[in-house]
Amino acid sequence: MRKSFRAGAALTVATAAMLATGCSAGSGAEPGPVELTYWAWAPELDKVVEVWNEENPDIQVTVQKQDGGDPAITKLLTAIKAGNGAPDLIQAEYQKIPTLVSSDALTDLAPVGAGDLAGNFADGVWSSVTLGGDSVYAVPQDSGPMMFFYREDIFNELGLTVPTTWDEYAETARAVRAADPTKFLGTFSANDAGWFTGLSQQAGASWWGIDGEAWTVGVDEEPTQKVAEFWGGLVEEGVIDNTPMYTPEWNAGLNDGSRIAWTGAVWGPGVLGGNAPDTAGLWKVAPLPQWDASTPATGNWGGSSTGVTTQSEHPEEALEFITWLNTDPEAVAALVETSGIYPADTASAASALSKAPGFFGNQPDFYDVAADIAKTVKPFTYGPNANVTYSAYNDEFAKAADARSQAAFVDAVAVMQKITVDDLEKAGFTVK
Amino acid sequence: MTAASTEARTGAERRKTGTHRRRDLRTRVLVPYAMLAPGILLFVAFMAAPILYTLFLSFQKTQVSGLGLGAGARTQVFAGVENYVTALTDPEFAASVGRVLLYGLVLIPTMLGLALLFALLLDSKRARATSFSRIAIFLPYAVPAVISSLLWGFLYLPGVSPFYFVFDAVGWDAPEILSSQLVLFGIANIALWGGVGFNMVVMFTSLRAVPSEIYEAARIDGASEVQMALRIKIPIIAPALVMTSLFSMIATLQVFAEPTTLRPLTNTLSTSWTPLMKIYRDAFTRDDIYSAAASSIVIALATFVISFVFLRIVQKRAFGQEE
Questions:
Q1: Which of A10, A317, A355, A358 has a Cα-to-Cα distance from A342 of 20 to 30 A?
Q2: Which pLDDT tens digit goes with each residue over A273-294?
Q3: Same domain for B129 and B251?
Q4: How much is the average pLDDT of A6-28?
């Protein structure tokens, strides 16, 4: 009896100890090198960081690998709410920055001198990290200018030319169906909000804006309506597909030649190489079809930045590191080489991106084309509830795409606007 | 303790017994609690506290001032029953509840019916290769729902599915499982595939517990196998049927993994297709844990009420003999 009592007591103590250790986190400024933790999901980023750690014994950075953009941000917001547990540095996609700033998760880096970096980046990219003000909430790392990928061999075989305007794109889509009903020029994907946002950006949309002390929401305006109407028309006509991207079926279609083009972004070679390995050397890249051929434009799909969290005790050292990581020629070259990103820093990008990706061995000037396209990215402001707008896109456009109705596409834009505004107002934002 | 032995005791001995008794009493009171402590502690830490916190959160909301940028712009304030009103009047929520009710109506009778049929077949005298069949039927239960959804997802996509390939080759029109009319059945099918085995094993085990004399008696009375199944076996295993129904109903209300895994493959599954998917979306995609907490409480209460009412109705009949 007494023995079991003691065992019970021991178990209780052990449980209590387990609970206690679960709650405690390492803290306190110990002497020695400054230690920074970095949550990121870019592949093999730790190898790039190793270069820094070897050269800078005073500032040691540890990469903690994350699952991806969404889970990392969810985790960070939880840590911010809890008051501890956040890393010093975070990889944040551009559309997440306003959300993070509004949750007080990112430190303004302007007071420690980040404003000097403005000249390194394209205006469209820089405005995403400043939210159009004097603050600097992150340093851009990579960007995803949208481009048009197509199967050169099939285009030749079917006698097609590369569409330079969206009207030509529609004509080409019809021609493909007429020539071979097993093939599609493209698909409208209700699953990829970032893709649709990029296409709207190209058309001149900027879904949020700041007007004094109020936010403006401009989803349901002419540029986005135009994009929705265009794709809705093609889907209703049946000349492009209405099923999502990134499904096993879509992958198989890229590989077997039933998908002959893709409105993707500069990181496309990785996707195509991974999903359609049999087609290496058969694809080519061109600028997106244009709304106005005389003023070429494109949008961004993807891309991310490095921010410093409000829980970091070393914002200056953190900025020193992320400035190196994202603008130093050696670091940017390593990012391109090991992590396979398209750098946002324009000067270092030019020197780092000399050789075309292996999958595009047939197009040696791949990155020259990309650099020209990247210059045409239109400015775009994200708002504090981009997450809500994106999930509204998924639901509303999924319904519209399933219905194959152009009118439903246009209605979906209006519903996205309403959901976005309602959410902002519910949280207490002033919306104009 | 006899009178003689008490008389024989000296004072010292008596004092010793007294301390013993006091110590015994203390041990007797303390030991059970000490032994329960780990359980109580874990229950409080991982069940009671989160539930209370969820309850607390469900009455809160965020309040943003100005542009909502920078420190202190976002505060948590008391919301009253606002979140509950929103949850209960939200057409998306009502639609998701309606969907799982329909899903349950399709799934539960089919799943339990098949499970009962298989259990009775395996239990019948003429059954052959019973252990192989039992394992074969049970095995899908061992496959996690996410994996089985991925597997079935491949089979449902016309472009990569061998079924559609065969249908095409024969020249038949294959139904589009992922279309808006059929997707519910597609998901029910995944749950059916995974769930029949578990329920069958529960029923089969209680069938095995039936004393064989009852069957002998029935056989002497001239009952056929079918009659025995309908008149003897099913009534006797009624408690197992009640339990599996209850578990299935709760699982139905909580369906999440299958539609979430299939969602990226099709336009027909929204992010609020089931109540739990909506709760997940509100909490983690829309970053609104407050309304997600309110919806969670509503679902938990509904589960509780449904379970209670169901047991109330069937308990008398199922467990009647035991009372």
A1: A317
A2: 888 999 999 999 999 999 999 9
A3: yes
A4: 42
Partners of residue A427 in chain B, C-beta under 8 Å: 61-64, 68, 74
Contacts of B42 in chain A (CB under 8 A): 15
- pLDDT at residue A82, as a whole number: 84
* Number of domains comprising chain A: 2
A196 touches chain B (CB under 8 A): no
pLDDT at site A117: 92
The CATH code of the domain that includes A55 is 3.40.190.10
Listed residues A322, A338, A364: the one ending a domain: A364
Beta-strand ranges (E) seen in A194-298 are: 208-211, 214-217, 261-265, 283-287
What's the whole-number average pLDDT of chain A?
A: 89
Q: What is the pLDDT of residue B319?
A: 64
**Read out DSSP for B167-229?**
HHHHT-----TTSTTTHHHHHHHHHHHHHHHHHHHHHHHHHHTS-HHHHHHHHHTT--HHHHI
Residue B207 has pLDDT above 60, yes or no: yes
Residues A208 and A255 in one domain: yes
At A146, which helix (H) or strand (E)? strand A139-151
The reply to whether B186 and B258 lie within a common domain is yes
How far is residue B180's CA from residue B95's CA, in Å, rounded to a whole number?
Answer: 14
Contacts of A398 in chain B (CB under 8 A): 266-270
- B237-256 residues touching A, CB cutoff 8 A: none
Question: Is residue A84 in some structural domain?
Answer: yes
Same domain, A139 and A173: no
Say yes or no: A139 and A153 in one domain.
no
Same domain, A294 and A308: no
**A39, A89 contact by CB (below 8 A):** yes
Give the closest of B42, B264, B265 to A15, CB-based.
B42
* B63 interface with A at CB cutoff 8 Å: yes
Q: Exposed (0-12), middle (13-18) or buried (19+): which is B20, by Cβ within 10 Å?
A: exposed
- The two structure tokens encoding residue A239: 């000349």
Q: Are residues B87 and B72 in the same domain?
A: no
| B286 closest CA partner among A299, A387, A224 | A387
Residue among A427, A56, A223 at smallest CA distance from B62: A427
Q: Are B53 and B91 contained in the same domain?
A: no
- The Cα A70–Cα A394 span in angstroms is 15
Pick from B49, B78, B107: which residue ends a domain? B78
Q: Is B285 in CB contact (< 8 Å) with chain A? A: yes
Cβ–Cβ < 8 Å for B140, B200: no
Domain containing A332 equals 32-144+302-364
